[in-house]
Design brief:
With 95 residues, this protein is an alpha+beta fold. It has three helices and four strands; from the N terminus they run H-E-H-E-E-H-E. It has helices at residues 21-27, 44-50, 76-79; strands at residues 32-36, 53-56, 71-74, 82-86. The model has no long low-confidence stretch (mean pLDDT 85).
Length: 95
């Protein structure tokens, strides 16, 4: 859904900002994975997730006219219990 046009649209989202949560996950090289932030042991990985990170949050609506609106600052370990990374999605198709 293109929220600026109020209509369904197919679009490609630009690469995530360097150093963001999204870019870091994409750099792992897996197209789909999940991680439970509640069970991270103390150490550098948990500290990274507890730091302030940029993250693109796209829900049911996105506008190509205002792509920066979807970039938020957050501390992932405090904002989420569980994260699922999906590298690529596709539009719905009628059955």
């Amino acid at each position: 859904m293109d929220s600026a046009l109020n209509q369904n649209s197919v679009f490609t989202v630009d690469d995530p900002p360097a150093g963001s949560l999204d870019a870091t996950f994409a750099s792992i090289g897996l197209p789909l994975f999940a991680t439970d932030l509640r069970t991270l042991p103390p150490g550098p990985v948990k500290a990274w997730f507890d730091g302030t990170r940029r993250s693109r949050q796209i829900g049911g609506g996105y506008s190509t006219k205002t792509p920066g609106v979807s970039i938020l600052l957050m501390r992932p370990v405090r904002a989420f219990d569980f994260l699922i990374f999906v590298l690529k999605t596709a539009p719905i198709a009628p059955l």
